[in-house]
Amino acid sequence: MRFYFYHPRNWLWRCLIVLAVLIFFVIVAAGGIIATNYHHFGNLFKVVALINSRYLEPVKVTNLVDGAIRGLVDALGDPYSVYLDPKMFAQLEEQISGTFGGLGIVVTSKDGFLTVVRAYPGTPAKREGISEGDLIVKINGRDTKGLDLETAVGLMRGPVGSKIKLSITRKDNPVVRELEITREQISVPTVEGHMIPNTRIGYLALTQFTMKTPEEVDAMLGRLQKQGMRGLLLDLRDNPGGELRAAVKVAEHFLPRGPVVYIDYRTGKDETYTVNGRRLDIPLVVLVNRASASAAEILAGAIKDTKSGILVGEKTFGKGIVQELFRLDNGAGLKLTTARYLTPAKHDIHKKGIEPDVVVPQGPGKEDLQLQKALEILNGQLAQAA
Predict the structure, then answer these.
(1) Is residue 268 a part of any domain in this protein?
(2) Number of domains the chain contains
(3) Distance between CA 343 and CA 78 in Å, rounded?
């Protein structure tokens, strides 16, 4: 067995010594944990030094540090906490703002497959024939089976004018289509709406929650009211969530005065988000399904608990935790789970979901049974009111 000693003049080793001293004082200040974990810290620095001195190829220190940070976050075992390199952090900020360079599709993970939920009209994806239900099996040659959504979305976004190769198939058609698409500047509308023909019912679909969503909802509800809306169908199906405060602002239209959501932090600095009770005084039915998650569940859960509307569809996804974005140096970032949220009735829905008031599974055909049931309920309420 051979032993190797590391000369202090090695610049990396000197950096590690300084880092070790800093970590020592931080941990001692936090409660003396180093006394029981010194072997682990010693191993950490030994491994870094061995890689630096003995690994076959030269390695950048920044790569080692990034890998160590990713390892720290991955060790949490939380799929929602993610270390984001500068490129991915910038892309996530663009997504939250609602404007970014990409293809114009919304994707989710179903049964381990990257599945298209929506392709927006007028976007590169729509022009190439990509549609709801398509499976993206490869991105630039990379297999997407089991790939997390953060990484998949990051791979599909890029500079405006750059090209991307997608391999597309469908469950009912195993033929793989190879597409090369040019990315464009995408401004994703988060709100769709119209009056249901031959009724007094307005239809409002929220595809996600960004900082633009409350303004878009205000404008759409104003148009629907001018067209004689007397009942509203709010569609939150396939809505993956998004910005918490945007969901609270949207809830102002649908809830009585009181709490929308309770945020429960480990540190005890709990928060309560409330609305002032300026709700629409019309019958409301909300559509949800297994892909309604996070901020969409906050809104759906508040409507159910306050009996402000009737939920129709399938049990929701069950994401009852909150992530915060922290900006790090060099443009990197950390998305970290910092709290859980509770509905107005103090229900914890994480990994449980929200049961709709009226359960309607979506059939395999193209007929929208959930929408039909929602319209049946709303028409009945309007007839009773008349």
Answers:
(1) yes
(2) 3
(3) 22
